[in-house]
Amino acid sequence: MTEALWALGRGTGIVALVMFTITLVLGIVTRSGRSVGGLGRFGVADVHRTAALTGVGLVAVHVGSLLFDPYAQLHLVDLVFPFLGSYRPLYLGLGTLAVDLLAVVTVVSLLRHRVGPRVFKSVHWLTYLLWPVALVHALGTGTDATSVWMTGLAAACFTAVTAAVGWRLLPAFEDRGRQRTPRKVS
């Protein structure tokens, strides 16, 4: 049973990283107004939200399975307060910090219509901090971090996010993907 919990914890953490990579990239694409893979802007936004919620669920399973795994030796305090863990405290603390940021972003996203667009947008910017913190956590804590497949997966995630963020920072980003039609003046 312990081995199954450990495998579940590792697997859900890795897939959560992939889901959040997809979420971040699609969030940037959604903001641009472009379509992807035949999906219109609203379809891309739906996939973005679905990937984000799937990632949140995977993180919950990741944390829960490792909490019950005696090998991982996580305690409830490790889930809330960063850098207090006994195993690789820096990297475990980054995971805790990522979970704390994820909780804030998730709650505000679910309450988007109540908190208003200004608060939603301000808090949503935290995802640009959340993602690299989670990546460093995975590479520092994960037992598969030095394997070729994990290094390749991390490199692919890093490349996708770096390319999307680089595109987002271009001055012409706001004008891309939107077609403006001149208004008829009567």
From TrEMBL:
Keyword Membrane set for record: yes
Keyword Heme assigned: no
Transmembrane spans: 6-29, 88-111, 123-142, 148-170
Top-level taxon of the source organism: Bacteria
Membrane topology: Multi-pass membrane protein
UniProt xrefs under Pfam families: Ferric_reduct (PF01794)
Compartments, as annotated in UniProt: Membrane
Record's keyword terms, sorted: Membrane, Transmembrane, Transmembrane helix
Domain Ferric oxidoreductase: 12-134
Protein name: Ferric reductase-like transmembrane domain-containing protein
Organism: Nocardioides koreensis
